[in-house]
Amino acid sequence: MDINLTALVAAIAVMSAPVVLAALGETITEKAGVVNLSLDGTILLAAMVSFVVAFETRSPVLGALAGAGTGAIVAAIVAAIGVQLGQSQVAVGFALTFLCRDLAYFLGSGHSRVEGPQFEPLPVPLLSELPLLGKAFFSHSILVYLSFIAIPLCAYLMYRTRWGLIIRSVGENPEAAWARGINPIMVRMAATIGGGAMVGLAGATYSLSVKPGWGHPQGCEGIGWIALALVIFGSWNPTRVVVGAYLFGLLQLMGIYFQDAFTTIPPQIFQVAPFPLMIFTLVIIHFSHGKKGVLARWVRMFSGKPPKAMGRPYRRN
Amino acid sequence: MLEIIEITKHFGPVQALKGVTLTARPGSIHGIVGENGAGKSTLMKIVTGYQSRTDGTIRLDGQDMAMASPREAAESGIGMLYQEPLDFPQLSVLDNFIAGADAFEPDVQKAVLASLQVGFGFHLDPRQKMQELTVGERQQLELLRLIRNGARILILDEPTTGISTRQKSQLFSALKKLREDGATILLVSHKIDEIEQLCDEVTVLRAGLTVAWQQQPFDRRKLLSAMFDTVPQQNDTAPKVATSVPGKSVLVFDEVHSSVGRSGMKGITITIGAGEIVGLAGVDGSGQSVFLKAAYGLLAPEQGNVTTLGRIPGPEYGSTKNEKVFLPSDRLSEALFPGLSIREHHLLAGETPQFLARNSGISQTQQAIATASIRGSVNTQVEDLSGGNQQRLLLSLIPPQTQLILMENPTRGLDVQSAAWTWRYLRERLHPEGAIVFASPELEEILSQATRVLAFYNGKILLDKKTSETSQEEISLAITGQLNRP
Amino acid sequence: MNSTRNLPQMLLGQARDILLISLLALGAVCCLLLALGISPADIASTLATGAVGSWLKFNHVLTVWVPLLLCCCGLLFTFRAGLWNIGIEGQVILGAIGTTLLLRADSLGLPPSLLIGLALCAGFISGGLWGGFAGLLKNRGGVNEIFGGLGLNFVAQGFILWLILGPWKREGIASMSGTDLFARELWMYTPPGWRVAPASIVIAICAFLVTWYILSRTRFGLRVKAVGANPAAAPLYSIRPDRTGLAAMILGGGIAGIAGGLQVTCVYHRLLPPISSGYGYLALLVVMLANYKAGPVPIICLLFAALAAGSIQLPITLQLDSSLSGVIQGACVVAALLVYGWRKSRKGGA
Questions:
Q1: For B468-478, what is each residue's pLDDT tens digit?
Q2: Most buried of A46, A306, B86, B461, CB within 10 angstroms?
Q3: Domain limits of chain B?
Q4: To probe the interface with A, which of C144, C154, C285, C320 has the most A CB atoms within 10 Å?
Q5: Which residues between 236 and 295 in chain A have a beta carbon less than 8 angstroms from any beta carbon of chain C?
Q6: Residue A226, SS3 per DSSP
Q7: Domains, chain C, ranges and CATH?
Q8: In this model, does residue C76 exceed pLDDT 60?
Q9: Which residues of A touch C148 (CB under 8 A)?
Q10: How many alpha carbons lie under 13 Å from residue A289 in its C-beta half-sphere?
Q11: Which stretches of chain A drop beneath a pLDDT of 70?
């Protein structure tokens, strides 16, 4: 088995790019205390819209923007029903998952399996000339670079800006945020819509770069659920969530590599692996609480708790 | 100068404030006292815009203020220390200090926090998580944050509950310092000692109304009587059941400790015998409800033993069912099932066969509705009942063989008639070998209904006497911590 | 506010809700179609003929209705207990696997009809265990039932693939198209001219009646409802909220498992990867649209099944993608959430 390390890293960077974007978007949303469960449908719908817009306008940039807009609009519906009206966020998100998925297949069927524009690889001058690193990190399309930039940007936003603190405080205790002059409803709306736009961008990354084109299936089905699991796996910390996303990319690639080596293990096993891992992680974290000893302390150090007010609607009395 | 004029507040059909007026002057500490439910906290939350008011005027230095949100209040220099600390437990001390500020400058704020700490003699580590701090430390941080925001009017709601003596003296010296600097301070408390120590003037609230106002030096006796309303009510007093079966103990607490709740329980030892009606007096969170929950078995004490009806209590599943009941104070959220009907509650509480018929439970429910005069029908959902009728329903669910009845605020939110009915009903239900233990914020109720009173203060019992041998004054001294245990 | 809700008022309110929801949802879909230059009337007639145009087509509606109704029954238990059983897909899959396991055990030498019955029981048990596993993860492991269930769905998907490509692979070559067909006598009886086994319809109807009976006429059903309404108050009535929730998960998973078992014995006569056909997820939408009440469930199931079956005609007659049915279903549910939420916020504000 011949594994070229540079090619492997490059492939992981590409395959994980949309997962990174979607998981980071959801992290922002959940940090504000809102669960947007519609990810899987949103990604698909945004992928379709991006491709169709790019196809009709011959401009991938416009396509990507349209994808982000689609994500924002779906998130706005989640916010309107789940935050403003105080309905179950899970219920709205779940219903939208399926509405968006079928809407994508229905509206996109005219553009199925047609040749369309996509973001071409854009090697970064000088940096792409670097031995090994250049090929691995600096010879991708602009959306993949965006996924790189989004990581420090997100971490910076969350922990080094006033806005990040406001988002975290609302997810933690909306009543206390209100007492300090913050409007929890507005913050939650904004975080949901902003996170949704990133999820939409993830969809665009699929149809315009990672798996260019549109079809039924597109190939990005199921990724939304993975992204939701990764947020938990990464315990709501942007950096750890991203580590999970790249780990998932590695698992996916291993599935492809090992297909030849271990024909008895179906590649699908590697694709579902993140879920049992996530459940396992949660159980371990649960049992470490209140326990003494080095191991429990170590687990607690590397795990975080969900935002305290996640999923709980805020109402002023 | 802060003027609060004729403030009213309705929560649905309940009127929490019926027109409160008071004036607080710069450079002074204004105490606000009153028993639980008098409307103190609601009034303060209205002044900071945390809650909206139904009617009335808030005037600051002669100008009418809308106070539509805490932001507006903060901008006009009003800051509040809430009774339950409103902060972010999982965030760091520094984050908590910054949250809500208009700029994000961690390094600057760290320095500000450090210099403020020096001035007040506090020692908080900015990197620590808020949840690792004690209530007192959380309060200190909140106070510093308000000062950082430039608050000229500070409102403190029961700031000394659950904090250590040292923290209390630190807080008091901080407040005195702020007063010297010309701040207006409103101090909500039920502890007369503290009010005497600190305040320049005091306003007493009772049942949503301003009932008294005094300046230093205070007349303690008058204050207490204004707070606790000594006007004799229509005393529907019971012939005190004195049928104590000697030697038979229903509930035994032996050196019980618990850290649950605001003050937990600190070494409670008590024996309650058959035939007793025991009233637990005390300010909210002094340990009474932890006591009741431990007696029912909803929480296990960390130290010591509880014996209920000869057994270690646990929520009763199976054979020991129906020997004891617990009626918590928040009926709808702790004791009833919203969306279920009166009949369904009776089916759940009674001896119901596994399979039901179309008319299962209807006749016994109708009978209960009649005897308890519940205003509702068999299929009325409980959330549509008024508070009084919810309580009537809960009482009607008590099985006849019940020996121990544990209750929190049995007459909370009830009108005079319902309250009187409640006690008649309860006395009828008192099992000859059982007991009734209830917590009540109203001393009147305890004196008129109980045979014995236990006064709780900060997780301890400071007074344990027969109601015939004590007085309202003695109990109010005990629950405000002014009575040393004999 | 302490008035008793009387029946005519309630029915009027419900009729108004239904009208509002359908107006909102169908209006939005019609606008979308008109914007695309498609006539909603054409769609409606195609869907109608696709669903009830012939006996065979209606048979197809029923083949969707049966598993959908069974899944809904399972969900009624878990929703009543206040649990979001998103793991129902996995429970359907495990039910199918459990049934297949017994149907492959022809060495037992049992008469076919008995074997089919036992196989369905195995489906119930395996689906129930899978549901119970999610419940245990919640009670003992602190894993929220939504994410635990979702994770178990993916695990079940992996498991069924492994079985089909591994131990249960087809004679000769492993294939994604499923295992070998069962022996003819292990197919549930389907009369000539029918596409759906009458016994499966009977099972679905019975399951619904039993569900309705348990939930509304037994002490257990009442306890489940109580736990869903307020778990904090349950101990005061001698009810253990965790155990009651677990029982609801096991029962709900079991009924979903029967749906999987019927897919195997009546519809496909073999185990194949997409055995659940997404009916579990669709059932979640149905129950949400019914506002978590049992009464309207069979009718909504029938409508959803008719949409799903009728939409097969869309590509043939109008060259449109069949996913339009999903769009209509999803739009209905989102509209319902909007209307119910609006009603709730008005009630709370009053």
A1: 888 888 888 88
A2: A46
A3: 2-227, 249-322+399-479
A4: C154
A5: 264, 266, 268-269, 271-272, 275-276, 278-279, 282-283, 285-287, 289
A6: helix
A7: 40-349 (1.10.3470)
A8: yes
A9: 279, 282
A10: 11
A11: 1-3, 259-272, 274, 290, 317
C4 compared with B426, residue with greater pLDDT: B426
Q: Is residue A66 in some structural domain?
A: yes
Q: Which amino acid is at C218?
A: T
pLDDT at B239 over 60: no
The count of domains in chain A is 1
- What's the first-to-final CA gap in chain B, in angstroms? 45
Residue B92 pLDDT level (bands cut at 50, 70, 90): very high
- Strand B153-157, strand B184-188: pairing: parallel
Burial class (CB in 10 A: 0-12, 13-18, 19+), C343: middle
Output the CA torsion A190→A195→A200→A202 (10° steps): 160
- Asked if residues C65 and C259 have their Cβ atoms less than 8 Å apart, the reply is no
Predicted local distance difference test score (pLDDT) of residue B237: 47
CATH of the domain at A26: 1.10.3470
User: In this structure, what token pair is assigned to residue A160?
Assistant: 């080094």
Specify the higher pLDDT residue, B191 or C268. C268
**Looking at the complex, does the CB of residue C175 fall below 8 Å from at least one CB of chain A?**
no
What's CA A74's distance to the chain center, in Å?
15
Residues of C near B (Cβ–Cβ under 8 Å) read 1-5, 217-220, 222-223, 225-226, 229-230, 232-233, 235-240
Decide if pLDDT at B182 tops 60. Answer: yes
Can you tell me the distance from the alpha carbon of B84 to that of C340, in angstroms, rounded to the nearest whole number? 33
* Domain of A187, in residue numbers: 5-301
Give the CATH superfamily of B2-227.
Answer: P-loop containing nucleotide triphosphate hydrolases (3.40.50.300)
Is position A265 within any domain?
yes
Work out the average pLDDT over C21-27.
95
A309 part of contact set with chain B, CB < 8 Å: no
Contact A179 B70 (CB under 8 A): yes
Tokens 């270690």, residue? B312
Confidence (pTM): 0.89
Confidence of residue C198 (pLDDT cuts 50, 70, 90): very high
Residue A290, phi then psi, degrees to nearest 5? 75, 0
What mean pLDDT comes out for the span C261-279? 93
CA-nearest of C95, C246, C115 to C182 is C115
| B2-227 and B249-322+399-479: identical CATH topology | yes
Task: State pLDDT tens for residues C216-263.
Answer: 999 999 999 999 999 999 988 889 999 999 999 999 999 999 999 999
Contact across the interface for B348 and C220, Cβ inside 8 Å? no
Please report, as a single letter, which amino acid is at residue C98. G
Task: Report the residue of chain A nearest B80, measured CA to CA.
Answer: A179
Q: What percent of chain C has pLDDT over 90?
A: 71
> For residue A56, is it within any domain?
yes
Phi, psi dihedrals of residue C144, rounded to the nearest 5°? -55, 140
Return the pLDDT at B241.
46
The CATH classification number of B249-322+399-479 equals: 3.40.50.300
Would residue A125 count as lying in a domain?
yes
Give the per-residue pLDDT at B233.
44
β-strands B245-258, B265-274: how paired? antiparallel
ipTM of the complex: 0.91
In the prediction, which pLDDT does C234 show?
92
Distance of CA B70 to the CA centre of its chain: 24
Cβ pair A198, A150 in contact under 8 A: yes
Q: What is the pLDDT of residue C2?
A: 38
Query: Can you spell out the DSSP letters for B113-136?
Result: HHHHHHHHT----TTSBGGGS-HH
Cβ atoms of A138 and A127 closer than 8 Å: yes
Structure token pair of residue A53: 């817009």
Residue A269, pLDDT score: 67
Mean local confidence (pLDDT), B147-176: 87
